[in-house]
Design a protein that fits this description.
The complex is a heterodimer of chains A (about 110) and B (about 700).
Chain A lengths: L3 E7 L2 E10 L4 H9 L8 E12 L1 H14 L4 E5 L3 H9 L7 E3 L5
Chain B lengths: L9 E2 L6 E4 L6 E5 L2 E7 L5 E8 L7 E4 L5 E2 L2 E7 L6 E8 L2 E2 L4 E2 L13 E3 L17 E3 L22 E4 L1 H5 L12 H6 L1 H7 L3 E4 L12 E2 L6 E2 L26 H14 L3 E6 L16 H9 L23 H17 L4 E4 L18 H8 L7 E4 L19 E4 L1 H11 L6 H8 L3 H4 L9 E4 L8 H4 L35 H19 L4 E5 L28 H4 L1 H16 L22 E4 L14 E6 L13 E7 L5 E4 L9 E6 L15 E2 L5 E4 L3 E7 L1
Helix pairs in contact in B: 8-9, 12-14
Classes of the chains: A alpha/beta (about 110), B alpha+beta (about 700).
């Protein structure tokens, strides 16, 4: 399945909806999209991952990249990720730099 | 700027892949703009083919011959453009002479793993039965080089300040009692970080984590019907790739991230990482073994061969890697540099390291080029280099391993002498005095300090500490070799009963002997090493060679933490004591004189009479005092420390050396006392009522500090 994502910046919060598969095939394009965030002074980058079926290491890289581009003042949130996706993130220890939660309040 | 060097110049015969001549270096598969650079060395191959598979596919999706113009010297290199590099596996087919007598065993029907593969699939989940019909068992994959290390850096703790904890990645947390979410994995170790911190060790030494095949020589035990496996893993499939089956994420191919993250988290907690590396042989075995990689790529380069083309077997494992061939030497150097630079590893322990000093005919060399290269390598400049200074071919080099001031050794003599002294052998006092001082008799002549000596009583190879005090003989029947494998001389003593017992006197004595051993280990100069699980009295039920036991025999049983809490507490406090007292951690040797004007020599020897050690052949008692003003060669200030060791079966009064008037003796540990009075927290030592004599119980160690 194709990966789909939409980036929506509201003030100092970037909201990114993820769905499908995020792997080496589509991660580079996704990363390009995330590059656009680097100009904005963001407080939060929120990835909505409810419909994300699979994330590979390349996909995770893209998320790390977003954090690095936006600097230490930006907080990264991963919202509603499935067990399968969370498992990969936790086992490889990449959960330490983002907030993992079920929902994201407005 | 438009880069013309990134454009394809060729098309594969099938028309599907765009190609360009590659860069010969670095070897292996490297992601370059637009594609992947594949490069492989073979001295004698006449042609080479790149074989591509979609992930886990039974048949290749492409065979791409290296055009002759893509070969430079003995290196085939090629850039393949537009590869979905996360989802492919690759290998090589090599054509060349089949002439075993000359050392050539080319077979173009075999698909060969890249010797420089950074990720290897095929055994992704530990114990999952492989498909033996698969034409490509161990598949090279392409590695990403973008782990986020943040500000991590190897810790560079001076080697004399380390306390090493040797563990098997799977065995450490596989037991049901471990309570971790991902048992038997790198992630499992991460979950045990708070435990390691509490114990206080400052370095973990991981038994082999390079890719190996747990199914190599697997068989069913005739004794108990269990599957016997290549559990320890001293048999490399690939040198550059972490063991997928040890990673909770191995099934996703993310073992690289998991290991890197483990190193990063250990570093964050002040714990270094040393890898046990096996460069003496590979998993290809002898002429009857499989083609995995090296044999089919350049047999004559990679292995030491007899004049008629058979495999020399100095490793005891079928073949011997040709370490002092310049090509193999460079591969080893590349490999270690890779682990040091890309995984931030702090050091290496070299299995059967004496093999690395043999020439291409197998004869020992006086200045082996490989060992010298490693000693002076710029990238490895701050890495710990530790040799297991012997091999299976009879070379024993403890005290004489070529060191260039850089190499430390597993001190096998420390283990043997301490065990003999502990079990009550007479005539060991002189040897023990050397061991306690960092073995100047072994290393002083070459101006190697106590930093040359890694002191240990137990390691993965042999009895656990609990078994060392519970068994006189080995009990390896479950290995299925009629109990003929494993060391016959463990220098152990069962304390009066062979194996498990409910006899409280025997169990008390065993606990005391464990405490005696660890007390002596942690007050010895040199770098102490502890076997994981010894701190909770883990048992292998008398098996002293559990290399094939992937079950409760080998796995650390965490429930013992409850039943043996007093052993854990003793370890923890002794470790804290060592860390608190620099006088125990000299890098050089004692000078046996007072060069600080303190009134005491740096080390003085005592016995039941102060200042008068009994060096006779019948002695079982020894005491020593370290002068705190001489700590770290006079550069650090510390308390005076006095240690009395009574390995006699009777109690003896030890006359204490007099301290300066402002100081008094305080007891830190007394293994004869019942827990919790056997050992105190650092700083909470109890002042002695009698400052002139200490009655040391039978088979007991007492540690005092003067303050």
């Amino acid at each position: 399945m194709e990966s789909k994502y939409s980036v929506n910046i509201q003030g100092d919060v970037a909201k990114i909806e993820l769905s499908g598969r995020l792997d080496a095939v589509n991660a580079p394009a996704f990363q390009e999209e995330l590059k656009k965030l680097s100009g904005s002074p963001l407080k939060s980058i929120v990835f909505f991952a409810k419909d994300l079926e699979y994330i590979s290491s390349a996909g995770l890289r893209a998320i790390i990249f977003a954090k690095q581009k936006c600097g230490v003042q930006s907080q990264v949130y991963l919202v509603g990720a499935t067990e399968a996706v969370l498992g990969v993130i936790k086992m490889s220890g990449l959960d330490t730099f983002m907030h993992i939660q079920d929902t994201y309040g407005e | 700027m438009l880069r013309v060097d990134l454009h394809p110049t060729h098309v594969s015969k099938c028309g599907r892949y765009k190609l360009r001549a590659g860069k010969p270096l670095p070897f292996g598969a490297t992601i370059v703009p637009g594609g992947v650079n594949f490069s492989i060395y073979s001295h004698a191959a006449t042609s080479c083919e790149l074989v591509l598979f979609e992930k886990h596919a039974p048949e290749p999706c492409a065979n791409i011959s290296f055009p002759e113009e893509f070969r430079i010297g003995n290196v085939f290199s090629m850039i393949v453009f537009d590869l979905d590099y996360e989802n492919i596996e690759y290998g090589f087919r090599m054509d060349g002479p089949w002439n075993p007598q000359e050392g050539h065993r080319f077979d173009k029907t075999k698909i060969l793993m890249d010797p420089y593969a950074k990720v290897i699939s095929g055994r992704d989940v530990w114990g999952a039965q492989p498909d033996w019909k698969d034409i490509f068992q161990h598949r090279s994959r392409i590695c990403f080089d973008d782990f986020d290390w943040e500000d991590d850096h190897p810790l560079e703790v001076p080697v004399e300040d380390l306390i090493i904890y040797e563990m098997h990645v799977r065995g450490f947390s596989r037991h049901a009692s471990s309570g971790v979410k991902h048992p038997g994995t790198f992630a499992g170790i991460m979950e045990k970080l708070p435990y390691l911190k509490k114990l206080g060790v400052s370095c973990v030494e991981l038994m082999p984590i390079h890719e190996f095949d747990e199914f190599e020589n697997s068989r069913v035990s005739p004794v108990n019907g269990k599957l016997l496996m290549n559990y320890w893993g001293y048999s490399n499939v690939g040198f550059f790739a972490p063991r997928a089956g040890f990673a909770a994420t191995g099934k996703f191919g993310m073992q690289v991230d998991e290991v890197k993250n483990l190193v990063k988290q250990l570093h964050k907690n002040g714990i270094e990482v040393i890898l046990d590396v096996v460069f003496n042989h590979t998993a290809e075995g002898n002429e009857r073994g499989p083609y995995i990689s090296y044999r089919g790529i350049d047999n004559k380069t990679y292995y030491i061969l007899t004049p008629d083309g058979y495999y020399f077997n100095f490793s005891g494992c079928g073949n011997t890697l040709n370490c002092n061939n310049p090509i193999v030497r460079n591969m080893i150097l590349d490999c270690l540099r890779y682990w040091a630079a890309d995984y931030h590893v702090d050091g290496f322990r070299f299995d059967l390291a004496s093999i690395l000093g043999r020439d291409q005919n197998g004869a020992p060399m006086s200045s082996p080029p490989l060992l010298e290269s490693l000693a002076f390598d710029p990238v490895l400049g701050k890495c710990k280099l530790i040799a297991e200074a012997w091999d299976a071919g009879g070379l024993y080099q403890v005290g004489s391993f070529p060191a260039w001031g850089r190499w430390a050794e597993w001190n096998g003599k420390y283990r043997d002498d301490l065990r003999k002294f502990l079990k009550g052998e007479a005539g060991m006092v002189g040897a023990m005095a050397q061991r306690l001082q960092g073995s100047p008799d072994l290393y002083g002549w070459e101006r190697r300090g106590s930093t040359a000596s890694v002191n240990f009583i137990t390691c993965h190879d042999g009895f656990t500490l609990m078994d060392m005090v519970s068994y006189n003989g080995k009990h390896n029947e479950a290995n299925g070799e009629n109990n003929s494998d494993g060391s016959n001389d463990s220098l152990s003593w069962n304390c009066g009963w062979e194996g498990d017992t409910s006899n409280p006197q025997i169990n008390r004595l065993r606990r005391k002997q464990i405490k005696n051993a660890v007390a002596m280990l942690l007050v010895s100069q040199g770098t102490p090493m502890i076997l994981a699980g010894d701190e909770i009295g883990n048992t292998q039920f008398g098996n002293n060679n559990a290399y094939c036991q992937d079950n409760e025999i080998s796995w650390v049983d965490w429930s013992l933490l409850n039943s043996n809490e007093e052993i854990f507490e003793f370890f923890r406090k002794m470790i804290a004591f060592r860390r608190a007292h620099p006088v125990l951690r000299s890098s050089g040797h004692f000078q046996n004189r007072d060069y600080m004007g303190s009134g005491f020599a740096d080390i003085t020897w005592h016995g039941t009479k102060a200042w008068n050690a009994d060096w006779s052949g019948q002695a079982h008692t020894l005491a020593f005092m370290l002068c705190g003003k001489h700590a770290k060669g006079g550069k650090a200030q510390d308390n005076n420390i006095y240690v009395a060791m009574n390995m006699h079966w009777d109690m003896h009064g030890f006359e204490l050396p007099k301290l300066p008037k402002s100081q008094a003796w305080y007891v830190f540990a007394n293994t004869d006392a019942r827990a919790p009075q056997d050992i105190w927290e650092v700083g909470e030592e109890k002042k002695l009522e009698n400052q002139s004599e200490f009655l040391v119980g039978p088979r007991s160690v007492v540690v005092l500090i003067g303050k």
